[in-house]
Structures are given as C-alpha cells and as structure tokens.
Amino acid sequence: MKKLRKGLLLYVLLQKRLFKKYSFLVILCMVPLFAAGIRLVSAQEKGVLKIVLCAEDGQTSEAGKIQKQLLEEKGIIRFSAAETRQEAVHDVESGAVDAAWIFAGNFSENLEDCAAERWYGGPPVIVVEREDNIALQLAREKLCGALYPDMSYEIYRQFVRSTLLQEKIPEQELRQAYETSRVEGSLFQLSFLDETGRKPEQADYMVAPLRGLLSLVVLLCGLACAMYYRQDEAAGLFAWMSAGRSRLFVYGYHLTATVDAAAAVLAALYFSGCFTSLGRELVLMSCYVFASTGFCLLVGRMCGSLEGLAAGTPVLMLMMLVLCPVFLDIRRLRIIQYLFPPFYYLNAVYHESFLAYLLLYMAVIHILDFSILLACPSKSFMLK
Q: Could you give the angle at which helices 243-272 and 22-43 cross, rounded to 10 degrees?
C-alpha cells in the first residue's frame, strides 16, 4: 500500500510538471480545437465538385425530375439549380461552379432521337465546363447513370415497336410491361466489416481522417515528452535516482504524456461522432498508448541527443502522416508501415485481427527497446 501511495504521488508530480510545459498544453488544446473545427466544417455545405443544373422545360418535366433527384442526393458532388441557361453558363464563367448540366428544352424528344441514333434536335443534355479533368470525367459518369432509366425505356420502346410488333401499342401497356421486369432497390449492398452498425452512406469523408490525425497527436506528445526528459536529465533533476529505479521511472515519465493525450483524443472522438463503442475504444487506445510509449522510448534512445530527437520528430511525423492510413492506404509500402504504431491502431478499429498484431507490435517494440538498453547502456537516457 505504501508503494502504491508513492507511485500515485509520483504520477501526480509528473502530471504537474507536464502541465507546466506550455508546449505540451498547446498540443493538448489542439485536440479538441482540431476536432471541433473538422466537425464544424463537415456540417457546412461541402463537395469536391460544384455543378449547377438547369431544366429548361420546367420542373414538372422528365428533365425536372432528374434534376430534383440529383439535388436531393448527398455526396462529394454539390448540386445547385439555375433558372436559365444563361445563368448556369455565367456561374461556370465566373468560377462559382465547376460545370453546368443544361437539360435542353426539348429533352424528351432529343432523348428519343438519341435512343434511335438520330441527332436531329441536338443532345438532350449540354455540359459546360471551363476545363476537363479526372473529377469532371467521373462526374459525367454520374450524369449517364441519372439518364440511364429514361434512355433504357426509350431503347426498349423503340425496339418493341420497330422489331417485335409492327402494330401500334398503347404507351400505357408498354410502360406497364417495362415496369414488371424492373429491378427494385440496389444490386449491391455495402457494409463495413466491423460491428458498429454504421452504414457506408453515413460515413462523412470530411471527418474520416480525424482519427488518424488524432492518433498522431498521441505520438507527438510522447516524442515531446522524450525531449522534456532530455532537458530535465541534462539539468540534473534525476541525479538522485538510482540506475535500477530510473528505467521504470523513464517509462512512467513518457507514459504520463501519452495517457493524457489518449484521454483528450478519446473525448474528441466521442464528441465528433467517430466513436465506435466504449469497450472497443478503451481496449484499442490502451494498447496503442503502450505501443506508442515504447516507440517513443526507442526513438529517443536511437537519436541519442536532444538535438537529434528534435530534428527527427518532424520527419517521423511526416512519414507517419503519409504512410499510415490517415488519408490513403499505400499498400505497396507495407514493410515500412509495419514500423509505426498508428498503422496497427487505425486498422484495428475496423479489423479485429489487427488487435492481435497491435499486441504483438507492443511486445516486440518493448523487447527491442530493452535489448538496446542492455546492449548499449549509453542509450539509457542517463547522461554520463
């Protein structure tokens, strides 16, 4: 009980010393501010592309129905409506939008001619763009998908009347026969491998990188704490401590910083809507904290000096930002990704098998750190 009381007292003192470091407080304050900023941005109107729609023959026409359907969709393309063709073209010329899709006034007739491979009346849709790029090419695929139901019916209607039956068939009978073979719903069902119950359409691409970015903050706090320890060690603050106790003390010193950062990150994930479940998050974050602490200790020993650690920290953070699945998952660099703890943590959130890999990584990183300590006592964080 006495040892436990001393341990808690030492933990409180370490916390007090950390909170006197303004740079550490700035890093911790960045977590809620960053999460709140991303959440605020995600709540606003957003989109990779801005496309204006114009149905020249009115909102009650077939073109108007397609326009209404596109306007109601939510995704990376943000649609808006224009009353006239001139207004839509002006929006493109002024740079307010990336493209304009203008449904011609004689949309139905032009679509019928298009299905019959006749081009008397012009195209059913006019696309106006300032430039052509990959994003706009993909957007035009969505336009083709929106036009497909009407185009498919026109092709069917003309084929039946011109090839199968020569006599005049009422439009209502044709439509009824066409609708009987229509497939309701989607041919594909998308789902995540995890058991959180989330639906793919509910995922917000603006909030998606938040977990990865916050996981890097935990490591940043650990690396910053390694530099703080170097400074305190150089000042002789730990000269009173024996070599046997110093190893556990060094680990506890670093663990204090990563635990504080992890608590702030969990709170930010909860209020940003990225939380899965309490039990899952606590287990994963606990493993990640110990893995990150071991990683920071190992990096600190390998750098050998405060200057080397300060110079290497930005390089490491940039490498983890690019190589770990924060924004993209670069599968060709798996060997390098295996070196960094965020890779295991971010994959373990939605793949249970990676939890075992995270535990294995945690064990390996601590064994490697202890082996370096035994083989090279000069790397023990104790200045000679």
A: 20
Q: What is the CA radius of gyration of the chain?
A: 30
At 172, which helix (H) or strand (E)? helix 171-180
How far is it, in rounded angstroms, from Cα 54 to Cα 70? 11
Contact 112, 161 (CB under 8 A): no
Domain 49-176 classified CATH 3.40.190.10? yes
- Asked if 345 and 280 touch (Cβ cutoff 8 Å), the reply is no
Tokens of 380: 């023990």
Domain with CATH 3.40.190.10 in the chain: 49-176
Tens-digit pLDDT profile for residues 357-382: 999 999 999 898 888 777 665 555 54
pTM score, two decimals?
A: 0.70
**Is residue 384 over pLDDT 50?**
no
Residue 277 has phi, psi (to 5 degrees) of -150, 155
Q: Which structure tokens are listed for 214?
A: 């916050």
Helix (H) or strand (E) holding 7: helix 2-18
Q: Of 237, 291, 228, which is closest to residue 259 (Cα–Cα)?
A: 291
Q: Which residue has the higher pLDDT, 169 or 299?
A: 299
Distances (CA, A) of 335 to 69, 195, 359, 369: 46, 29, 18, 20
- CB-CB contact of 119 with 136 (8 Å): no
Amino acid in position 65: K
Provide the 3-class DSSP secondary structure of residue 52. Answer: strand
Residues in the chain, total: 384
**pLDDT, tens digit, for every residue of 302-343?**
887 888 888 899 999 999 999 998 888 888 888 999 999 999
Q: pLDDT band for 182, please (50, 70, 90 cuts).
A: low
